[in-house]
Amino acid sequence: MKHILCVLIAIFALSAPAGAVDPDEILKDPALEERARVISKDVRCVVCQNQSIDDSNSGIAKKMRVLVRDRITKGDTNQQVIDYLVSRYGDFVLLNPPVKAKTAILWFGPAGMIVLGLFGIIFYYRRRSKETAATTGASPLSADEKNRIDALMNEKGSET
Amino acid sequence: MTSQRYLFLLPLVVFCIIAIYFGVGLTKDPSRLDDDILTNQPMGHFNLIPIEGRTEGLSIDDVKGKVSLVNFFGSWCVACLQEHPFLLELKETRTIDVPVYGVDWDEKNPKDVVRWLKRHGDPYTKIGVDVDGSTIIDWGITGAPETFVVDKKGIIRYKHIGPISPSSWASTIWPLIVELRKE
């Protein structure tokens, strides 16, 4: 029983999810294969839109996985492989859009909206506190009023 | 103070601007945003094997020297069949005289394309088979048919996705070919 449990744990906990990678695609060198997996996770399958080529079992995704492996085996760096694919398919092929002028709204828009909202809130409360101050016409307490408050406060304090 | 009276409308205005921006975005196909990325780029090197039963494949040198079309197709591709009669017509119209080079890809069985051409006719000047997919990736292919106009120097000048219709031929592709021949 214990053995079976160990095997099950090994199967489910220790094996990395293989995505759509076919056994015949896997490179012999584990270091290179690992790099291929890292690149593949960030490259969009161009016919399935929201899947990486690592996840997709479409024919074209398989071709791209093989090409990625072929290139790193021949000595390309990860960035060179990515740059090549972008030069053929455009930024669309990346699952993470790169930060540039064209995508600035995408990257900084949400933070910008929060900042704008915070300014709005600050502006609103500042104006409201000013307005209430103006309408109630609050002025410093006179000596008489201060004495009465002190007396009331002391009374409360002694009771408890 | 009067301008501040309408300040409560500001969120609505901001919402409308965002809604219009996203609304326009919905009409665009994200996979086509970078359609012209290869335009004005030279072709990458390729040297493709022939289809079964032939001796001549297709290499980059075949395509250079003359304004030509490079058509990516497959026997599995339904839209290619739709385009097929038009390509045959191009071949038969002597006055047009544009070589159409075929790149066949993603065949399950290499004999499929031979049968397909036998049954439907062969509109191509030369055909090469992209076995490993390296050429289709080099041309940024996402489906079939896709057709490129290549100038005399071997520079890609236009990419057409989907079947060539008589109207897209008349309005875009043919005028471009005429223009490129003058270069």
Key structural traits:
A: 160 residues; mainly alpha; 2 domains; elongated; B: 183 residues; alpha/beta; Glutaredoxin; 5-stranded mixed beta sheet; two-stranded antiparallel ribbon; 7 helices; 39% helix
Q: What's the short version?
A:
The complex is a heterodimer of chains A (160) and B (183). Helices cover 64% and strands 0% of the residues of chain A.
Note down, in words, how this protein is organized:
The complex is a heterodimer of chains A (160) and B (183). By secondary structure, chain A is mostly helical. Chain A folds into 2 domains: 20-97, Cytochrome C biogenesis protein (Helicase, Ruva Protein, domain 3), CATH 1.10.8.640; 99-135. Chain A has helices spanning 2-14, 30-41, 59-73, 78-89, 104-136, 143-159. Chain B has a single domain (31-181), classed as Glutaredoxin. Helices cover 39% and strands 17% of the residues of chain B. Chain B is built from 7 helices and 7 strands, in the order ααββαβαβαβαββα. Chain B has helices at 2-5, 10-26, 60-63, 78-92, 110-120, 134-138, 166-181; strands spanning 47-48, 58-59, 68-73, 100-105, 126-130, 146-150, 156-161. Chain B is elongated. Chain A binds chain B through residues 46-47, 49, 59-60, 62-64, 66-67, 70, 85, 87-92, and chain B through 30-31, 33-34, 37-38, 106, 132-134, 136-143.
Dominant shape of chain A: elongated
Strand segment count of chain B: 7
* Highest-level CATH class of chain B: Alpha Beta
Rg from Cα of chain B: 22 Å
Examine the coordinates and then state which fold CATH places here, giving the name of the CATH topology of chain B.
Glutaredoxin
Q: Any idea what the CATH architecture of the largest domain in chain A is?
A: Orthogonal Bundle
Instruction: Report the average pLDDT across residues of chain B.
Output: 92
Approximate helicity band of chain A: 55-70%
Which spans of chain B of ≥5 residues are poorly predicted at pLDDT below 50?
none
Strand order of the largest sheet of chain B: 5-4-3-6-7
Overall pLDDT confidence of chain A = 85
Share of helix of chain B, binned: 25-40%
Portion in beta strands of chain B: 15-25%
